[in-house]
Amino acid sequence: MDSLMTAAARSLAAGDALGALNRVALRDDAPALALRGIAMAQLGDFARAKALLRRAARAFGAKEAVARARCVVAEAEIALASRELAWPAKALDHARATLEAHGDRINAAHARYLDVRRALLIGRIDEAEQTLDALDSSALPPALHAAHELIAAGIAMRRLRAKAARGALERARRAAHIAGIAALSAEIDHASATLDTPAARLVAHGGTRLLLLDDVQALFASDTLVVDACRHAVRDADTVISLATRPVLFALVRLLGEASPNDVPREALIARAFRMRHPDETHRARLRVEMGRLRTLLRPLADVRATRDGYALAPHTAPNVAVLARPVEDDHAPLLACLADGEAWSSSALALALNASQRTVQRALETLAASGKAQCFGRGRARRWLAPPAPAFASALLLPADLASG
User: Fold this and answer.
1) In this structure, are 273 and 348 located in the same domain?
2) What is the 3-state secondary structure (H, E, C) of the chain?
3) Pair 152, 249 in one domain
4) What is the domain-level CATH number for residue 267?
5) What is the mean pLDDT of residues 285-302?
6) Is residue 63 domain-resident?
7) Is residue 399 situated within a structural domain?
8) pLDDT above 80 (res 1)
9) pLDDT, mean of residues 311-325
10) Residue 263: which domain range?
11) Taking 90 as the threshold, does the pLDDT of residue 313 lie above it?
């Protein structure tokens, strides 16, 4: 590699994309194309960056397997940054194996981290945690060490481990300072800010107050029976009963939790859970059936008692009942939580992250755009969606996660 290429590579490693382009902008050889592609990615022109990296991969040829593999890894990083999450995983795995076989452990580790970050974005928390635990970042450059700790903090936030998240972010901040990359430090600062932002609302004893992630973690470890409206479950410190696939039952238990220790009249339950303004005997019969189902599901934690006017929630051992509600009451809160990371998302990537159909996500995005809560640019398959200025709530409890292992 000549001196200009070496200087350009050093500029890129330090996050100085313009300095790198000043040295190689007029060159069309394979290494220069690759460096130009990475520089354009750092400047945010992902389409141009992707085209340059593909040209570079073709220019390197079959004999330069390591260089081609590095281009594949760089293209995967661009796909992650532009939230194109349905990339060909086999191509990245093959590139990583090639890099490992040729002793390029740094870029091979970088490929692993891209896989972990993608798994985290689409809610595969167990997969992300297992892969990250298998990686040793101690011998890696400071930038990759910071990336490792940043991912660890993201996993800890999804697991509601606020103290672990703060520790990981502090280690990431120290590594980023050594690396001297401003963009990486800014990403860490953004992640740190979410820990000091309200993550949920607590509804109990007729009052409401905002909770940080630390407060939510303490609530889940307490002896309170929690009706978790963020992840549609009922839980105490030891047991979690998911009602994510039973929306009517969860609507009923939330109403009971908000009123506890008092009961809720039958008419109010029917009106809000069944959305019926004028109930008749058929609706009252249905309410009895649904309450029987709810009583069976909640048996490990509480009883659902019939009163003269309605029903009441009676915990077996917990002294109190509280409802943990979303920081904002919006039917599309999980979608807003994804957009809150500040990146431009495609509807297909959002569908993958939320485990929903693309058409369902598109309809939701159109609704949010009409109300000013989302905005888009581009057309057709190039259309991307953004949130307006960041909302004043943390998104950890709204993003997809594996509840059973939380």
Assistant:
1) no
2) CCHHHHHHHHHHHCCCHHHHHHHHCCCCCHHHHHHHHHHHHHCCCHHHHHHHHHHHHHHHCCCCHHHHHHHHHHHHHHHHHCCCCCCCHHHHHHHHHHHHHCCCHHHHHHHHHHHHHHHHHCCCHHHHHHHHHCCCCCCCCHHHHHHHHHHHHHHHHHCCCHHHHHHHHHHHHHHHHHHCCHHHHHHHHHHHHHCCCCCEEEEECCEEEEECHHHHHHHHHCCCEEEECCCCEEECCCCEEECCCCHHHHHHHHHHHHHCCCCEEHHHHHHHHCCCCCCCHHHHHHHHHHHHHHHHHCCCCEEEEECCCEEEEEECCCCCEEEEECCCCCCCHHHHHHHCCCCCECHHHHHHHHCCCHHHHHHHHHHHHHCCCCEEECCHHHCEEECCCCCCCCCCCCCCCCHHHC
3) no
4) 1.10.10.10
5) 95
6) yes
7) no
8) no
9) 94
10) 200-325
11) yes
Q: Are residues 38 and 174 in the same domain?
A: yes
Instruction: For residue 235, tell me if it sits in a domain.
Output: yes
Q: What average pLDDT score do residues 369-391 get?
A: 81
| 395 within some domain | no
Looking at the fold, whether 257 and 170 belong to one and the same domain comes out as no
Residue 184, domain CATH: 1.25.40.10
pLDDT score for 393: 58
Mean pLDDT across the stretch 74-80? 91
Domain count, the chain: 3
Q: Are residues 348 and 297 in the same domain?
A: no
pLDDT of residue 395: 63
